[in-house]
Amino acid sequence: MTIYGIKTCGSVKKALKFFNDHGIDYNFVDFKKESVGEERINKWLQKTTIDKLFNNKGTKYRQLGLKELNLDSAGKIEWLAKENMLIKRPVIEYGNGEVMVAFDEDVYKAAFL
């Protein structure tokens, strides 16, 4: 299992706490230290939607003024690869290529316990 995010994100903190509390091993990839490229983003998009993956409510989205650009899916993918802080967090890769985005304790319990 690999968890992608940033350590200061509240949702990522909750996810890491969940896995630590339940003794579930994982690898953590910090977006601030290791960039995720378009290839991995496209891999995730085989298992989730651009609307789930693209964070249009965050600070970085507002700072970059992306609302005014009215991005299509291709534009969103390009921005996600260029600016990983636009990726909704955490992103979890597990099992046979499954992908889960964001933190929801009930969903985590059903999937991982």
Structure explained in plain terms:
- The chain is of the alpha+beta class and 113 residues long.
- The chain has a single domain (2-112), classed as Glutaredoxin.
- Helices cover 41% and strands 14% of the residues.
- The chain has six helices and four strands.
- A four-stranded mixed β-sheet has the order 2-1-3-4, with no helix packed on it.
- The longest helix has 12 residues, at 10-21.
List descriptors:
single chain; 6 helices; 4 strands; alpha+beta; globular; 14% strand
Give me a quick take on this structure.
The chain is of the alpha+beta class and 113 residues long.
Gyration radius, in Å? 14 Å
Rough shape? globular
By secondary-structure content and strand pairing, the structural class works out as alpha+beta
Identify the CATH class: Alpha Beta
The tally of strands reads: 4
